[in-house]
Protein backbone atom coordinates (compact mmCIF):
# COMPACT_ATOMS: atom_id res chain seq x y z
CA UNK A 1 0.00 0.00 0.00
CA UNK A 2 1.21 3.51 -0.82
CA UNK A 3 -0.18 6.79 0.43
CA UNK A 4 0.27 10.02 -1.55
CA UNK A 5 -0.77 13.53 -0.65
CA UNK A 6 -2.26 16.11 -2.96
CA UNK A 7 -4.82 18.89 -2.69
CA UNK A 8 -8.45 17.98 -2.15
CA UNK A 9 -10.18 19.64 -5.12
CA UNK A 10 -13.69 18.18 -5.04
CA UNK A 11 -15.20 16.69 -1.89
CA UNK A 12 -16.15 13.05 -1.47
CA UNK A 13 -14.46 9.66 -1.41
CA UNK A 14 -14.00 7.37 -4.42
CA UNK A 15 -12.75 3.78 -4.32
CA UNK A 16 -12.16 1.75 -7.47
CA UNK A 17 -9.80 0.32 -10.07
CA UNK A 18 -7.44 2.77 -11.73
CA UNK A 19 -7.44 3.81 -15.35
CA UNK A 20 -4.23 5.57 -16.33
CA UNK A 21 -4.43 8.54 -18.67
CA UNK A 22 -1.34 10.32 -19.92
CA UNK A 23 -1.59 13.39 -22.07
CA UNK A 24 1.97 13.22 -23.34
CA UNK A 25 1.73 11.21 -26.56
CA UNK A 26 4.48 10.72 -29.15
CA UNK A 27 4.32 13.25 -31.97
CA UNK A 28 4.69 12.62 -35.67
CA UNK A 29 8.00 13.71 -37.22
CA UNK A 30 8.39 16.88 -39.33
CA UNK A 31 9.91 17.67 -42.80
CA UNK A 32 7.26 18.69 -45.36
CA UNK A 33 7.27 19.34 -49.11
CA UNK A 34 5.78 22.52 -50.62
CA UNK A 35 2.56 20.65 -51.56
CA UNK A 36 2.35 19.17 -48.13
CA UNK A 37 2.62 22.63 -46.57
CA UNK A 38 -0.51 23.77 -48.43
CA UNK A 39 -2.30 20.56 -47.50
CA UNK A 40 -1.33 20.77 -43.82
CA UNK A 41 -2.39 24.43 -43.64
CA UNK A 42 -5.80 23.50 -45.08
CA UNK A 43 -6.13 20.52 -42.69
CA UNK A 44 -5.36 22.81 -39.78
CA UNK A 45 -8.02 25.33 -40.87
CA UNK A 46 -10.63 22.57 -41.25
CA UNK A 47 -9.75 21.09 -37.86
CA UNK A 48 -10.00 24.51 -36.19
CA UNK A 49 -13.47 25.03 -37.70
CA UNK A 50 -14.57 21.59 -36.49
CA UNK A 51 -13.13 22.17 -33.02
CA UNK A 52 -15.08 25.44 -32.84
CA UNK A 53 -18.32 23.57 -33.57
CA UNK A 54 -17.45 20.92 -30.99
CA UNK A 55 -16.83 23.58 -28.36
CA UNK A 56 -20.21 25.19 -29.06
CA UNK A 57 -21.82 21.76 -28.56
CA UNK A 58 -19.79 21.09 -25.40
CA UNK A 59 -20.82 24.46 -23.96
CA UNK A 60 -24.49 23.63 -24.54
CA UNK A 61 -24.16 20.18 -22.99
CA UNK A 62 -22.30 21.46 -19.96
CA UNK A 63 -24.75 24.30 -19.43
CA UNK A 64 -27.53 21.72 -19.11
CA UNK A 65 -25.48 19.49 -16.77
CA UNK A 66 -23.64 21.97 -14.59
CA UNK A 67 -24.88 25.50 -15.28
CA UNK A 68 -24.15 28.61 -17.24
CA UNK A 69 -20.88 29.60 -15.55
CA UNK A 70 -19.20 26.24 -16.12
CA UNK A 71 -20.20 26.34 -19.79
CA UNK A 72 -18.32 29.63 -20.07
CA UNK A 73 -15.08 27.61 -19.99
CA UNK A 74 -15.78 26.28 -23.46
CA UNK A 75 -17.01 29.60 -24.80
CA UNK A 76 -13.71 31.13 -23.70
CA UNK A 77 -11.84 28.28 -25.36
CA UNK A 78 -13.71 28.86 -28.63
CA UNK A 79 -12.43 32.45 -28.57
CA UNK A 80 -8.88 31.11 -28.32
CA UNK A 81 -9.39 29.46 -31.71
CA UNK A 82 -9.80 32.96 -33.18
CA UNK A 83 -6.62 34.13 -31.52
CA UNK A 84 -3.83 34.73 -34.08
CA UNK A 85 -1.36 34.17 -31.25
CA UNK A 86 -2.23 30.47 -31.19
CA UNK A 87 -3.46 29.58 -34.69
CA UNK A 88 -1.08 32.01 -36.46
CA UNK A 89 1.81 30.47 -34.59
CA UNK A 90 0.73 26.96 -35.64
CA UNK A 91 0.48 28.11 -39.29
CA UNK A 92 3.98 29.57 -39.10
CA UNK A 93 5.29 26.30 -37.67
CA UNK A 94 3.84 24.47 -40.69
CA UNK A 95 5.35 26.95 -43.12
CA UNK A 96 8.71 27.67 -41.52
CA UNK A 97 9.50 24.63 -39.37
CA UNK A 98 7.85 22.24 -41.89
CA UNK A 99 5.75 20.61 -39.17
CA UNK A 100 2.70 18.47 -39.86
CA UNK A 101 -0.50 20.14 -38.60
CA UNK A 102 -0.71 17.85 -35.54
CA UNK A 103 2.74 18.78 -34.34
CA UNK A 104 2.29 22.47 -35.25
CA UNK A 105 -0.84 22.95 -33.15
CA UNK A 106 0.56 21.01 -30.21
CA UNK A 107 3.83 22.96 -30.21
CA UNK A 108 2.05 26.30 -30.69
CA UNK A 109 -0.23 25.45 -27.76
CA UNK A 110 2.74 24.51 -25.59
CA UNK A 111 4.56 27.78 -26.43
CA UNK A 112 1.56 30.04 -25.73
CA UNK A 113 0.81 28.10 -22.53
CA UNK A 114 4.42 28.46 -21.38
CA UNK A 115 4.19 32.24 -21.90
CA UNK A 116 1.01 32.38 -19.81
CA UNK A 117 2.56 30.24 -17.10
CA UNK A 118 5.39 32.72 -16.69
CA UNK A 119 3.00 35.59 -15.86
CA UNK A 120 2.54 36.82 -12.28
CA UNK A 121 -1.25 36.88 -12.53
CA UNK A 122 -2.71 33.66 -11.10
CA UNK A 123 -5.81 33.83 -13.31
CA UNK A 124 -3.79 34.13 -16.52
CA UNK A 125 -1.47 31.33 -15.39
CA UNK A 126 -4.46 29.07 -14.90
CA UNK A 127 -5.54 29.80 -18.51
CA UNK A 128 -2.45 27.96 -19.77
CA UNK A 129 -4.32 24.68 -19.27
CA UNK A 130 -7.13 25.99 -21.50
CA UNK A 131 -4.68 26.80 -24.29
CA UNK A 132 -3.18 23.32 -24.08
CA UNK A 133 -6.68 21.88 -24.03
CA UNK A 134 -7.76 23.75 -27.16
CA UNK A 135 -4.59 22.65 -28.93
CA UNK A 136 -5.19 19.04 -27.87
CA UNK A 137 -8.75 19.21 -29.19
CA UNK A 138 -7.60 20.46 -32.59
CA UNK A 139 -4.98 17.73 -32.63
CA UNK A 140 -7.59 15.09 -31.75
CA UNK A 141 -9.76 16.32 -34.64
CA UNK A 142 -6.75 16.04 -36.96
CA UNK A 143 -6.17 12.49 -35.76
CA UNK A 144 -9.87 11.68 -36.05
CA UNK A 145 -9.84 9.91 -32.69
CA UNK A 146 -12.52 9.44 -30.06
CA UNK A 147 -11.65 10.84 -26.64
CA UNK A 148 -10.18 7.88 -24.72
CA UNK A 149 -11.90 8.92 -21.47
CA UNK A 150 -15.28 8.66 -23.16
CA UNK A 151 -14.62 4.97 -23.77
CA UNK A 152 -14.19 3.83 -20.17
CA UNK A 153 -16.78 1.09 -19.78
CA UNK A 154 -16.64 0.17 -16.08
CA UNK A 155 -16.66 2.33 -12.93
CA UNK A 156 -13.07 3.53 -12.48
CA UNK A 157 -10.80 6.07 -10.84
CA UNK A 158 -8.93 8.15 -13.44
CA UNK A 159 -5.26 8.68 -12.63
CA UNK A 160 -3.77 11.29 -14.96
CA UNK A 161 -0.75 13.52 -15.33
CA UNK A 162 -3.05 16.45 -16.15
CA UNK A 163 -6.72 16.80 -17.06
CA UNK A 164 -8.04 19.57 -19.24
CA UNK A 165 -11.61 20.85 -19.12
CA UNK A 166 -12.47 18.90 -22.28
CA UNK A 167 -11.16 15.71 -20.65
CA UNK A 168 -13.34 16.33 -17.62
CA UNK A 169 -16.35 17.01 -19.84
CA UNK A 170 -15.65 13.83 -21.87
CA UNK A 171 -15.76 11.69 -18.72
CA UNK A 172 -18.70 9.36 -18.56
CA UNK A 173 -20.13 10.34 -15.18
CA UNK A 174 -21.57 6.88 -14.45
CA UNK A 175 -18.18 5.26 -14.91
CA UNK A 176 -16.03 7.95 -13.33
CA UNK A 177 -15.81 7.36 -9.61
CA UNK A 178 -13.17 10.06 -9.07
CA UNK A 179 -9.89 11.36 -10.39
CA UNK A 180 -6.35 12.20 -9.32
CA UNK A 181 -3.88 14.34 -11.23
CA UNK A 182 -0.18 14.98 -10.84
CA UNK A 183 -0.44 18.70 -11.56
CA UNK A 184 -3.04 21.44 -11.25
CA UNK A 185 -4.48 23.37 -8.34
CA UNK A 186 -7.96 23.59 -6.84
CA UNK A 187 -8.79 26.61 -9.01
CA UNK A 188 -7.91 24.92 -12.31
CA UNK A 189 -10.96 24.52 -14.50
CA UNK A 190 -10.84 20.74 -14.34
CA UNK A 191 -11.15 21.01 -10.55
CA UNK A 192 -13.97 23.54 -10.81
CA UNK A 193 -15.83 21.26 -13.21
CA UNK A 194 -15.27 18.25 -10.94
CA UNK A 195 -16.93 20.17 -8.11
CA UNK A 196 -19.80 21.23 -10.32
CA UNK A 197 -20.32 17.63 -11.47
CA UNK A 198 -19.88 16.22 -7.96
CA UNK A 199 -16.92 13.95 -8.84
CA UNK A 200 -14.43 13.48 -5.95
CA UNK A 201 -10.99 14.69 -7.05
CA UNK A 202 -7.47 15.23 -5.78
CA UNK A 203 -5.07 17.41 -7.79
CA UNK A 204 -1.38 18.11 -7.44
CA UNK A 205 -0.36 14.62 -6.31
CA UNK A 206 3.16 14.34 -7.77
CA UNK A 207 4.27 10.86 -8.83
CA UNK A 208 0.80 9.36 -8.84
CA UNK A 209 0.94 8.11 -12.44
CA UNK A 210 4.12 6.16 -11.69
CA UNK A 211 2.81 4.89 -8.34
CA UNK A 212 -0.34 3.33 -9.81
CA UNK A 213 -0.64 0.39 -12.21
CA UNK A 214 -3.74 0.04 -14.38
CA UNK A 215 -6.48 -1.88 -12.60
CA UNK A 216 -4.99 -1.41 -9.14
CA UNK A 217 -7.41 -0.24 -6.42
CA UNK A 218 -7.11 3.45 -5.62
CA UNK A 219 -8.84 5.41 -2.87
CA UNK A 220 -9.33 9.14 -3.54
CA UNK A 221 -10.24 11.39 -0.62
CA UNK A 222 -11.27 14.61 -2.34
CA UNK A 223 -11.87 16.32 1.00
CA UNK A 224 -8.57 15.61 2.71
CA UNK A 225 -6.38 15.29 -0.41
CA UNK A 226 -5.20 11.74 0.38
CA UNK A 227 -4.66 9.08 -2.29
CA UNK A 228 -4.22 5.45 -1.17
CA UNK A 229 -2.81 3.05 -3.76
CA UNK A 230 -3.27 -0.73 -3.54
CA UNK A 231 -4.82 -0.82 -0.03
CA UNK A 232 -5.48 -4.09 1.80
CA UNK A 233 -9.02 -5.40 2.37
CA UNK A 234 -9.32 -3.96 5.90
CA UNK A 235 -8.31 -0.48 4.76
CA UNK A 236 -10.77 -0.61 1.84
CA UNK A 237 -13.55 -1.68 4.22
CA UNK A 238 -12.80 1.19 6.61
CA UNK A 239 -12.77 3.78 3.81
CA UNK A 240 -15.92 2.29 2.30
CA UNK A 241 -17.69 2.87 5.61
CA UNK A 242 -16.42 6.43 5.67
CA UNK A 243 -17.52 6.92 2.04
CA UNK A 244 -21.05 5.77 2.77
CA UNK A 245 -21.31 7.91 5.89
CA UNK A 246 -20.07 10.96 3.95
CA UNK A 247 -22.48 10.31 1.09
CA UNK A 248 -25.43 10.05 3.51
CA UNK A 249 -24.30 13.20 5.29
CA UNK A 250 -23.98 15.09 1.99
CA UNK A 251 -27.50 14.06 0.99
CA UNK A 252 -28.89 15.20 4.34
CA UNK A 253 -27.05 18.50 4.07
CA UNK A 254 -28.13 19.07 0.46
CA UNK A 255 -31.73 18.75 1.64
CA UNK A 256 -31.13 21.79 3.89
CA UNK A 257 -30.14 24.08 1.02
CA UNK A 258 -33.39 25.99 0.82
CA UNK A 259 -34.42 25.75 4.46
CA UNK A 260 -33.88 28.75 6.76
CA UNK A 261 -31.01 28.91 9.26
CA UNK A 262 -33.17 28.96 12.35
CA UNK A 263 -33.12 27.33 15.75
CA UNK A 264 -35.73 24.70 16.59
CA UNK A 265 -37.86 27.43 18.21
CA UNK A 266 -37.70 29.67 15.15
CA UNK A 267 -34.93 32.19 15.97
CA UNK A 268 -33.68 33.11 12.51
CA UNK A 269 -30.21 34.20 11.49
CA UNK A 270 -28.72 34.76 8.02
CA UNK A 271 -26.01 32.61 6.49
CA UNK A 272 -23.84 34.38 3.95
CA UNK A 273 -20.69 33.71 1.98
CA UNK A 274 -17.14 35.05 2.18
CA UNK A 275 -15.83 35.54 -1.33
CA UNK A 276 -12.56 36.65 -2.86
CA UNK A 277 -13.39 36.63 -6.56
CA UNK A 278 -16.31 36.61 -8.98
CA UNK A 279 -16.03 32.81 -9.30
CA UNK A 280 -16.68 32.53 -5.59
CA UNK A 281 -19.81 34.65 -5.97
CA UNK A 282 -21.23 32.08 -8.39
CA UNK A 283 -20.45 29.29 -5.92
CA UNK A 284 -22.11 31.25 -3.12
CA UNK A 285 -25.35 31.54 -5.12
CA UNK A 286 -25.12 27.86 -5.94
CA UNK A 287 -24.86 26.80 -2.34
CA UNK A 288 -27.79 28.89 -1.21
CA UNK A 289 -25.96 31.74 0.55
CA UNK A 290 -28.35 34.51 1.59
CA UNK A 291 -25.89 37.18 0.61
CA UNK A 292 -22.20 37.94 0.50
CA UNK A 293 -21.14 38.76 4.05
CA UNK A 294 -17.57 39.60 3.11
CA UNK A 295 -16.28 40.42 -0.36
CA UNK A 296 -12.50 40.72 0.03
CA UNK A 297 -11.43 43.17 -2.68
CA UNK A 298 -7.68 42.70 -2.27
CA UNK A 299 -7.47 40.39 -5.32
CA UNK A 300 -8.08 43.45 -7.47
CA UNK A 301 -5.10 45.31 -6.02
CA UNK A 302 -2.37 42.75 -5.32
CA UNK A 303 0.25 41.33 -7.70
CA UNK A 304 0.03 44.14 -10.22
CA UNK A 305 2.01 47.18 -11.13
CA UNK A 306 -0.62 49.90 -10.72
CA UNK A 307 -3.92 50.44 -8.94
CA UNK A 308 -7.03 49.17 -10.75
CA UNK A 309 -8.96 52.14 -12.15
CA UNK A 310 -12.53 53.07 -11.27
CA UNK A 311 -14.06 51.39 -14.34
CA UNK A 312 -12.27 48.08 -13.76
CA UNK A 313 -13.41 48.01 -10.14
CA UNK A 314 -16.94 49.12 -11.03
CA UNK A 315 -17.28 46.21 -13.45
CA UNK A 316 -16.29 43.65 -10.80
CA UNK A 317 -18.57 45.12 -8.11
CA UNK A 318 -21.43 45.49 -10.60
CA UNK A 319 -21.15 41.85 -11.61
CA UNK A 320 -21.07 40.67 -8.00
CA UNK A 321 -24.09 42.82 -7.07
CA UNK A 322 -26.04 41.68 -10.11
CA UNK A 323 -25.24 38.00 -9.50
CA UNK A 324 -26.46 38.20 -5.88
CA UNK A 325 -29.62 40.25 -6.56
CA UNK A 326 -31.83 40.69 -4.55
CA UNK A 327 -29.43 39.64 -1.79
CA UNK A 328 -26.85 42.09 -0.45
CA UNK A 329 -23.12 42.09 -1.14
CA UNK A 330 -21.03 43.44 1.73
CA UNK A 331 -17.91 44.77 0.05
CA UNK A 332 -14.96 45.37 2.31
CA UNK A 333 -12.90 48.33 1.24
CA UNK A 334 -9.23 47.72 0.59
CA UNK A 335 -7.56 45.86 3.46
CA UNK A 336 -3.89 45.59 2.58
CA UNK A 337 -0.82 46.13 4.66
CA UNK A 338 -0.15 43.48 7.30
CA UNK A 339 1.15 40.45 5.38
CA UNK A 340 -0.03 41.88 2.04
CA UNK A 341 1.97 44.98 1.09
CA UNK A 342 1.20 46.95 -2.09
CA UNK A 343 4.44 47.55 -4.00
CA UNK A 344 2.88 50.17 -6.32
CA UNK A 345 1.92 52.35 -3.38
CA UNK A 346 5.55 52.75 -2.36
CA UNK A 347 4.80 51.77 1.24
CA UNK A 348 7.71 52.03 3.62
CA UNK A 349 9.05 48.94 5.36
CA UNK A 350 7.44 48.29 8.73
CA UNK A 351 8.89 46.11 11.48
CA UNK A 352 5.45 45.12 12.74
CA UNK A 353 3.17 45.46 9.71
CA UNK A 354 0.17 43.89 11.48
CA UNK A 355 0.40 46.80 13.91
CA UNK A 356 1.15 49.21 11.11
CA UNK A 357 -0.51 51.07 8.27
CA UNK A 358 -3.13 48.54 7.17
CA UNK A 359 -6.82 48.47 6.35
CA UNK A 360 -8.75 51.69 6.85
CA UNK A 361 -5.68 53.48 8.24
CA UNK A 362 -3.94 53.00 4.92
CA UNK A 363 -6.99 54.17 2.94
CA UNK A 364 -7.23 57.33 5.04
CA UNK A 365 -3.53 57.99 4.37
CA UNK A 366 -3.97 57.47 0.60
CA UNK A 367 -7.38 59.10 -0.06
CA UNK A 368 -7.10 58.90 -3.86
CA UNK A 369 -6.95 55.11 -3.77
CA UNK A 370 -9.89 55.12 -1.34
CA UNK A 371 -11.95 57.63 -3.35
CA UNK A 372 -11.56 55.59 -6.53
CA UNK A 373 -12.83 52.45 -4.80
CA UNK A 374 -15.73 54.30 -3.15
CA UNK A 375 -16.83 55.86 -6.46
CA UNK A 376 -16.77 52.42 -8.11
CA UNK A 377 -18.88 51.01 -5.26
CA UNK A 378 -21.42 53.86 -5.36
CA UNK A 379 -21.80 53.33 -9.11
CA UNK A 380 -22.21 49.56 -8.68
CA UNK A 381 -24.94 50.19 -6.09
CA UNK A 382 -27.21 51.21 -8.98
CA UNK A 383 -27.21 47.53 -9.99
CA UNK A 384 -27.80 45.76 -6.66
CA UNK A 385 -27.55 45.98 -2.88
CA UNK A 386 -24.06 47.09 -1.97
CA UNK A 387 -23.09 47.51 1.67
CA UNK A 388 -19.72 49.17 2.20
CA UNK A 389 -17.69 47.75 5.07
CA UNK A 390 -14.62 49.47 6.52
CA UNK A 391 -11.89 47.14 7.85
CA UNK A 392 -9.56 47.62 10.84
CA UNK A 393 -11.55 50.38 12.47
CA UNK A 394 -10.22 51.43 15.90
CA UNK A 395 -12.69 54.11 16.94
CA UNK A 396 -15.46 56.51 15.90
CA UNK A 397 -13.08 59.21 14.73
CA UNK A 398 -11.79 56.96 11.97
CA UNK A 399 -15.35 56.18 10.93
CA UNK A 400 -16.13 59.89 10.68
CA UNK A 401 -13.03 60.49 8.57
CA UNK A 402 -14.14 57.67 6.25
CA UNK A 403 -17.63 59.15 6.00
CA UNK A 404 -16.15 62.50 4.93
CA UNK A 405 -14.26 60.79 2.11
CA UNK A 406 -17.40 58.88 1.12
CA UNK A 407 -19.29 62.21 0.93
CA UNK A 408 -16.53 63.54 -1.30
CA UNK A 409 -16.83 60.47 -3.57
CA UNK A 410 -20.58 61.11 -3.83
CA UNK A 411 -20.03 64.76 -4.77
CA UNK A 412 -17.40 63.85 -7.37
CA UNK A 413 -19.84 61.48 -9.10
CA UNK A 414 -22.64 64.07 -8.94
CA UNK A 415 -20.38 66.68 -10.52
CA UNK A 416 -19.58 64.22 -13.31
CA UNK A 417 -23.29 63.43 -13.72
CA UNK A 418 -22.63 59.72 -13.11
CA UNK A 419 -25.51 57.73 -11.55
CA UNK A 420 -24.94 56.34 -8.06
CA UNK A 421 -27.03 54.06 -5.87
CA UNK A 422 -27.81 54.00 -2.14
CA UNK A 423 -25.38 52.07 0.09
CA UNK A 424 -25.30 51.03 3.72
CA UNK A 425 -22.08 51.81 5.54
CA UNK A 426 -20.69 49.57 8.26
CA UNK A 427 -17.50 48.49 9.95
CA UNK A 428 -15.52 45.41 10.75
CA UNK A 429 -14.85 44.85 14.40
CA UNK A 430 -11.45 43.21 14.55
CA UNK A 431 -9.43 45.48 16.84
CA UNK A 432 -10.16 45.05 20.57
CA UNK A 433 -10.58 48.83 20.95
CA UNK A 434 -13.49 48.74 18.51
CA UNK A 435 -15.10 45.85 20.37
CA UNK A 436 -14.71 47.63 23.71
CA UNK A 437 -16.14 50.87 22.28
CA UNK A 438 -18.97 49.10 20.43
CA UNK A 439 -21.68 50.92 22.36
CA UNK A 440 -20.50 54.27 20.97
CA UNK A 441 -19.19 52.97 17.65
CA UNK A 442 -22.40 51.21 16.57
CA UNK A 443 -24.20 54.54 16.72
CA UNK A 444 -22.00 55.81 13.87
CA UNK A 445 -22.80 53.04 11.39
CA UNK A 446 -25.62 50.99 9.92
CA UNK A 447 -24.08 47.56 10.56
CA UNK A 448 -21.00 45.76 11.88
CA UNK A 449 -19.33 42.45 11.18
CA UNK A 450 -16.87 40.86 13.55
CA UNK A 451 -13.56 39.71 12.05
CA UNK A 452 -12.56 37.00 14.47
CA UNK A 453 -9.28 36.24 12.68
CA UNK A 454 -7.76 39.58 13.51
CA UNK A 455 -9.73 40.03 16.71
CA UNK A 456 -8.13 36.80 18.01
CA UNK A 457 -4.66 37.86 16.86
CA UNK A 458 -4.92 41.24 18.57
CA UNK A 459 -6.72 40.04 21.71
CA UNK A 460 -4.36 37.13 22.40
CA UNK A 461 -1.17 38.68 21.00
CA UNK A 462 -0.61 35.85 18.54
CA UNK A 463 0.70 36.67 15.07
CA UNK A 464 -1.77 34.92 12.75
CA UNK A 465 1.01 34.04 10.30
CA UNK A 466 3.29 32.45 12.91
CA UNK A 467 2.81 28.66 12.93
CA UNK A 468 4.67 28.37 16.22
CA UNK A 469 1.87 30.08 18.11
CA UNK A 470 -1.00 28.80 15.98
CA UNK A 471 -2.24 26.46 18.71
CA UNK A 472 -2.61 29.38 21.11
CA UNK A 473 -4.69 31.39 18.63
CA UNK A 474 -8.03 29.84 19.50
CA UNK A 475 -10.95 32.13 18.63
CA UNK A 476 -13.04 30.25 21.18
CA UNK A 477 -10.89 31.76 23.93
CA UNK A 478 -13.30 33.34 26.45
CA UNK A 479 -11.46 36.66 26.10
CA UNK A 480 -12.34 36.73 22.39
CA UNK A 481 -15.90 35.64 23.19
CA UNK A 482 -16.24 38.47 25.72
CA UNK A 483 -15.08 40.95 23.06
CA UNK A 484 -17.69 39.52 20.68
CA UNK A 485 -20.32 39.82 23.41
CA UNK A 486 -19.39 43.42 24.05
CA UNK A 487 -20.54 44.07 20.48
CA UNK A 488 -23.53 41.74 20.15
CA UNK A 489 -24.79 42.58 23.63
CA UNK A 490 -23.72 46.24 23.58
CA UNK A 491 -26.08 48.59 25.41
CA UNK A 492 -27.81 50.62 22.76
CA UNK A 493 -27.23 48.09 19.97
CA UNK A 494 -30.99 48.10 19.43
CA UNK A 495 -31.89 46.54 16.10
CA UNK A 496 -28.38 47.09 14.73
CA UNK A 497 -27.34 44.23 12.39
CA UNK A 498 -24.17 42.48 13.65
CA UNK A 499 -22.58 39.64 11.70
CA UNK A 500 -19.44 37.56 12.06
CA UNK A 501 -17.21 37.02 9.03
CA UNK A 502 -13.98 35.57 10.47
CA UNK A 503 -13.24 31.86 10.09
CA UNK A 504 -15.02 31.15 13.36
CA UNK A 505 -18.35 31.87 11.64
CA UNK A 506 -17.81 28.83 9.40
CA UNK A 507 -17.05 26.45 12.25
CA UNK A 508 -20.13 24.31 13.01
CA UNK A 509 -18.78 23.81 16.53
CA UNK A 510 -18.88 27.55 17.21
CA UNK A 511 -22.13 28.39 15.40
CA UNK A 512 -24.49 27.60 18.34
CA UNK A 513 -22.39 29.77 20.60
CA UNK A 514 -22.37 32.72 18.19
CA UNK A 515 -26.13 32.39 17.76
CA UNK A 516 -26.44 32.44 21.54
CA UNK A 517 -24.32 35.57 21.72
CA UNK A 518 -26.89 37.27 19.48
CA UNK A 519 -25.40 37.57 15.99
CA UNK A 520 -27.63 38.51 13.07
CA UNK A 521 -25.55 36.72 10.47
CA UNK A 522 -22.68 34.28 9.98
CA UNK A 523 -20.58 34.58 6.83
CA UNK A 524 -18.26 31.81 5.71
CA UNK A 525 -16.59 30.01 2.84
CA UNK A 526 -19.45 28.55 0.74
CA UNK A 527 -18.67 24.80 1.10
CA UNK A 528 -19.37 24.87 4.86
CA UNK A 529 -22.73 26.68 4.66
CA UNK A 530 -24.78 23.50 4.96
CA UNK A 531 -22.81 22.14 7.95
CA UNK A 532 -23.26 25.42 9.83
CA UNK A 533 -26.95 25.51 8.98
CA UNK A 534 -27.35 21.99 10.35
CA UNK A 535 -25.68 23.11 13.61
CA UNK A 536 -27.94 26.18 13.93
CA UNK A 537 -31.02 24.03 13.34
CA UNK A 538 -30.02 21.53 16.01
CA UNK A 539 -30.87 23.51 19.18
CA UNK A 540 -33.19 26.14 20.61
CA UNK A 541 -32.30 29.80 21.02
CA UNK A 542 -32.65 29.39 24.79
CA UNK A 543 -30.11 26.56 24.79
CA UNK A 544 -27.77 28.58 22.58
CA UNK A 545 -28.01 31.57 24.91
CA UNK A 546 -27.34 29.43 27.98
CA UNK A 547 -24.36 27.86 26.23
CA UNK A 548 -23.00 31.32 25.36
CA UNK A 549 -23.46 32.55 28.94
CA UNK A 550 -21.55 29.57 30.28
CA UNK A 551 -18.78 29.94 27.70
CA UNK A 552 -18.29 33.59 28.69
CA UNK A 553 -17.59 32.43 32.23
CA UNK A 554 -14.96 29.83 31.20
CA UNK A 555 -11.30 30.22 32.14
CA UNK A 556 -9.73 29.21 28.83
CA UNK A 557 -10.39 27.94 25.29
CA UNK A 558 -10.08 24.28 26.30
CA UNK A 559 -12.85 24.73 28.83
CA UNK A 560 -15.09 26.33 26.18
CA UNK A 561 -14.41 23.45 23.80
CA UNK A 562 -15.15 20.89 26.53
CA UNK A 563 -18.44 22.66 27.24
CA UNK A 564 -19.41 22.53 23.56
CA UNK A 565 -18.28 18.90 23.22
CA UNK A 566 -20.47 17.91 26.17
CA UNK A 567 -23.42 19.29 24.17
CA UNK A 568 -22.32 17.28 21.10
CA UNK A 569 -20.49 20.09 19.28
CA UNK A 570 -16.95 18.83 18.77
CA UNK A 571 -14.52 19.07 15.85
CA UNK A 572 -14.09 15.82 13.99
CA UNK A 573 -10.63 14.46 14.68
CA UNK A 574 -9.95 14.42 10.94
CA UNK A 575 -8.17 11.07 11.30
CA UNK A 576 -8.58 8.82 8.29
CA UNK A 577 -9.67 5.26 9.06
CA UNK A 578 -6.14 3.99 8.55
CA UNK A 579 -2.84 5.17 9.76
CA UNK A 580 -1.13 6.30 6.61
CA UNK A 581 2.24 7.64 7.60
CA UNK A 582 2.90 10.51 5.15
CA UNK A 583 5.49 9.38 2.61
C1 LIG B 1 -10.89 38.76 10.01
O1 LIG B 1 -9.91 39.39 10.40
O2 LIG B 1 -11.55 37.97 10.73
C2 LIG B 1 -11.34 38.88 8.61
C3 LIG B 1 -12.46 38.34 8.19
O3 LIG B 1 -10.53 39.58 7.77
P1 LIG B 1 -9.19 38.96 7.11
O4 LIG B 1 -9.12 37.51 7.47
O5 LIG B 1 -9.33 39.19 5.65
O6 LIG B 1 -8.14 39.81 7.75
MG1 LIG C 1 -9.17 41.03 9.22
Please outline the helices and strands.
Blueprint: E1 2-5, E2 7-10, E3 13-21, H1 34-66, H2 68-80, H3 84-96, H4 101-117, H5 122-126, H6 128-143, E4 156-160, H7 165-170, E5 176-181, H8 189-197, E6 201-203, H9 208-211, E7 217-221, E8 226-229, H10 233-254, E9 261-262, E10 268-275, H11 278-286, E11 292-296, H12 310-324, E12 328-332, H13 360-365, H14 367-380, E13 385-390, H15 396-416, E14 424-429, H16 432-436, H17 438-441, E15 447-450, H18 452-460, H19 478-488, E16 497-500, H20 511-517, E17 521-524, H21 529-536, H22 541-552, H23 557-566
Parallel strand pairs: 3-4, 4-5, 5-6, 10-11, 10-17, 11-12, 12-13, 13-14, 14-15, 15-16, 16-17
Antiparallel strand pairs: 1-8, 2-6, 3-7, 7-8, 9-10
Helix pairs in contact: 1-2, 1-3, 1-6, 2-6, 3-4, 4-6, 11-12, 12-14, 14-15, 18-19, 20-22, 22-23
Bound molecules: phosphoenolpyruvate and magnesium ion (MG).
Phosphoenolpyruvate binds at residues 294, 296, 335, 430, 451-454, 501-502.
Write a concise keyword list for the protein shown above.
single chain, disordered C terminus, eight-stranded parallel beta barrel, binds magnesium ion, binds phosphoenolpyruvate, alpha/beta
Structural summary, described in words:
By secondary structure, the chain is α/β, with parallel strands linked by helices. The chain has helices at residues 34-66, 68-80, 84-96, 101-117, 122-126, 128-143, 165-170, 189-197, 208-211, 233-254, 278-286, 310-324, 360-365, 367-380, 396-416, 432-436, 438-441, 452-460, 478-488, 511-517, 529-536, 541-552, 557-566; strands at 2-5, 7-10, 13-21, 156-160, 176-181, 201-203, 217-221, 226-229, 261-262, 268-275, 292-296, 328-332, 385-390, 424-429, 447-450, 497-500, 521-524. Mean pLDDT is 88; it is low at 24-29 and 573-583. Helix 1 runs antiparallel to helix 2 (68-80) and helix 1 crosses helix 6. Bound molecules: phosphoenolpyruvate and magnesium ion. The site of magnesium ion has 5 residues, from helix 18. Magnesium ion binds at residues 391, 430, 451, 453-454.
